[in-house]
Specification:
By secondary structure, the chain is of the alpha/beta class. It folds into 2 domains: 41 residues, no CATH class; 113 residues, Sandwich (Immunoglobulin-like), CATH 2.60.40. The protein is built from 4 helices and 8 strands. Helix 1 crosses helix 4. The protein is globular and about 40 Å long. The N terminus and C terminus are likely disordered. The protein binds 2-acetamido-2-deoxy-beta-D-glucopyranose (4 copies). One 2-acetamido-2-deoxy-beta-D-glucopyranose binds next to helix 2.
């Protein structure tokens, strides 16, 4: 019984940190044309591979993960998600360390600054200090995860 719980806990235990894009403002067209608005807000955060970027918006927006060239050109690619009435969801940085580029593909939102380049660093630890679970399930898995780490430490 205890063993089964521990095995479950190990499989459930993912030390994921959620980064909300744009902090309080969410993923939207910056109020004025501010190239680099999202790049600046991402620049001072140390974002490790394996974590999740959380995109939240009201109104009509989309997000697409693109190449540097598509980011530079605001290419009208097929987005990963597009909504006209708001949405929130996560994007897992599963490609390892390196640059990740995101744009909104609606109208000229990207040209107006709704684009972001993130320099993702290699995973260094299993610390989950800034964990913020998005749901009850997340809270449960945090508890299980914390318990697993507790067991491992003893
Ligand atoms: C979306 O609108 C709601 C209600 O006005 C607001 O509380 C929330 O902060 C908004 N979210 C974003 C990402 O702008
Ligand atoms: C946008 O630009 C206008 C005019 O330059 C300025 O008055 C306003 O404060 C700016 N808004 C933001 C959020 O930067
Ligand atoms: C990021 O850090 C630099 C240097 O410390 C600072 O000048 C800049 O204002 C910071 N940017 C943000 C968005 O906090
Ligand atoms: C990303 O960050 C690493 C470590 O700080 C740095 O060595 C690298 O040059 C950065 N890459 C880009 C494209 O800025």
């Amino acid at each position: 019984m205890t063993l089964a719980l521990v095995v479950l806990a190990f499989t459930e235990c993912e030390a994921v940190t959620y980064y909300t894009v744009g902090d309080g403002r969410g993923w939207t067209t910056p109020p004025n044309i501010t190239a680099g608005f999202y790049d600046d807000s991402a620049a001072n955060k140390s974002i490790e591979a394996g974590n999740v970027l959380r995109f939240e918006f009201n109104g009509t927006h989309s997000f697409a993960a693109v190449s540097k060239k598509e980011y530079d050109n605001c290419a009208k690619v097929s987005p990963i998600y597009k909504a006209s009435t708001g949405w929130s969801g996560g994007y897992k940085l599963s490609r390892g360390a390196g640059m990740y580029f995101f744009i909104c593909t609606i109208d000229s939102h990207c040209e107006a600054g709704q684009k972001m380049a993130v320099n993702v660093t290699a995973t260094t630890s299993a610390s989950f200090a800034t964990w913020s679970p998005p749901s009850t399930l997340g809270a449960l898995s945090t508890a299980v995860c914390a318990f697993t780490l507790f067991l491992r430490g003893h």
